[in-house]
Design brief:
By secondary structure, this protein is α/β, with parallel strands linked by helices. 35% of the residues lie in helices and 21% in strands. It folds into two domains: 327 residues, Peroxisomal Thiolase, Chain A, domain 1; 35 residues. β12 and β13 form a beta hairpin. The site of oxa(dethia)-CoA has 18 residues, from α2 and α6.
Length: 377
């Protein structure tokens, strides 16, 4: 029997440190007025040195699980959409799985730039629909501040750090994720780039291996081209998904777009011939947090009372690849009466997860000592 994937939990985490436009104007030749009028951004959060995609992803995930009132051991799958994880492996998702103590969960990172969260929703909702898993946590988490050239005023003004997460759960009740469409056009790869292989990262590397190495690990972008692509693809992707769910734009209560630039959204709204306030925007407070932007905006939208039971909400992402995607969800959850996160029980649960993880590490060390002794005998 086909299962329906419902959003039953949501959560976000934003680092404490805030960088205003005036703070950035001390670093590069720009002004608060220019940034606000061209992008809508007023400030962004920046991770401190002890924070990472995995630690922030864990914070967002534990809040999402608390909202859903679901124990981490019930989670079957964890996806972290990101482009800024500390390691290629272990995946940030594996680290989150360990922090949560979600022992039954598979875990992997997903790379689709700013579209990553919608791609993750697509993968997880299909896995739920076919009965492959029942409970999935989809996280978007980014430390964009670590991949910016802070001398480049064309990019460093745009991005911020943070994480958001949702819990998707299977149910026989119709609703939840009703349709998803995903797309990619690699011919636009040059428009938005973040190299991961650094030319000088391995000093012992033979020079003939350098061909794929980039000079710097920072974002480069053709802003105007990305701007035009974004307006066109938001309108096309949203329409495709809404139609494939058998609905029209009149049935859509709210669109939560990737938060890149207020002007992009204003022009996309014009193209779709809908009021701009059909789109939920929080780019002014958090800037562009890439794969994290949609789940952070979703948590904000729920907090601000913008979603009601039976609303049809559309998520739409676009970015590097080029990649894009959207999904339409029938909203069924209501806000819990009390904040279930950060209770004494919750703190104890995650302390126990850390302790269990430490015990497993110690037992692996004991095994290694025993195996070495047996080998010598
Ligand atoms: O997740 C997707 C990520 N990417 C995006 O969303 C980016 C989409 N693109 C954009 O949001 C816009 O293209 C930007 C905000 C990046 C730039 O806005 P624009 O209106 O397209 O400006 P522009 O690049 O055409 O530059 C106009 C002028 C230039 O000066 P000249 O050549 O006209 O003298 C730039 O040098 O603005 C200048 N400029 C700035 N001035 C002050 C560019 N950046 C800045 C700045 N402060 N930060």
């Amino acid at each position: 029997m086909l299962r329906y994937a419902h959003i039953v939990g949501w959560g976000k985490y934003l680092p404490e440190k805030v960088l205003t436009n005036d703070d950035i104007a001390l670093l590069v030749n720009t002004t608060d007025e220019w940034i606000r009028s061209r992008t809508g951004i007023r400030r962004r959060h920046v991770a401190d040195e002890n924070e990472s995609v995995a630690t922030m992803g864990f914070e967002a995930a534990r809040r999402a699980l608390a909202t859903a009132d679901i124990h981490p051991q019930e989670v079957d799958m964890i996806i972290v959409a990101t482009s800024t994880a500390v390691h290629a492996f272990p995946s940030a998702a594996s680290l989150v799985q360990n922090y949560l103590g979600a022992q039954s969960a598979s875990a992997f990172d997903l790379g689709a730039a700013c579209s990553g969260f919608v791609y993750g929703m697509g993968m997880a909702s299909q896995a739920i629909a076919t009965g492959f898993v029942n409970t999935a946590v989809i996280i978007g988490s980014e430390t964009m501040s670590r991949v910016l050239d802070w001398n480049d005023r064309g990019t460093c003004i745009l991005f911020g750090d943070g994480a958001g997460a949702v819990v998707l759960r299977g149910s026989s009740v119709p609703g939840g994720v009703m349709a998803t469409s995903l797309g990619s056009d690699g011919s636009g790869a040059d428009m938005l780039k973040l190299p991961t292989v650094y030319r000088n990262a391995v000093p012992t590397m033979p020079s003939s291996f350098y061909k794929n190495g980039a000079d710097v690990n920072t974002i480069s972008m053709n802003g105007r081209q990305v701007f035009r692509f974004a307006i066109k693809i938001i309108a096309e992707s949203v329409l495709e998904t809404v139609e494939s769910a058998g609905l029209t734009m009149d049935d859509v209560a709210l669109i939560i777009p990737h938060q890149a630039n207020t002007r992009i959204i204003e022009m996309a709204a014009k193209r779709l011939e809908i009021p701009v306030d059909t789109f939920y925007l929080n780019v002014d407070k958090v800037a562009n947090t890439s794969a994290a932007s949609i789940p952070i905006a979703l948590a904000d939208a729920v907090e601000n009372g913008r979603l009601h039971p039976d609303d049809n909400v559309v998520f739409v992402g676009f970015g590097g690849g080029l990649s894009w995607g959207s999904s339409i969800v029938k909203w069924a959850a209501s806000r819990p009466m009390e904040d279930r996160s950060d209770t004494r029980w919750e703190r104890a649960r995650y302390a126990a997860a850390r302790a269990r993880s430490r015990v497993r590490q110690l037992s692996r060390q004991m095994d290694a000592i025993r195996a070495a002794e047996e080998y010598e005998e």
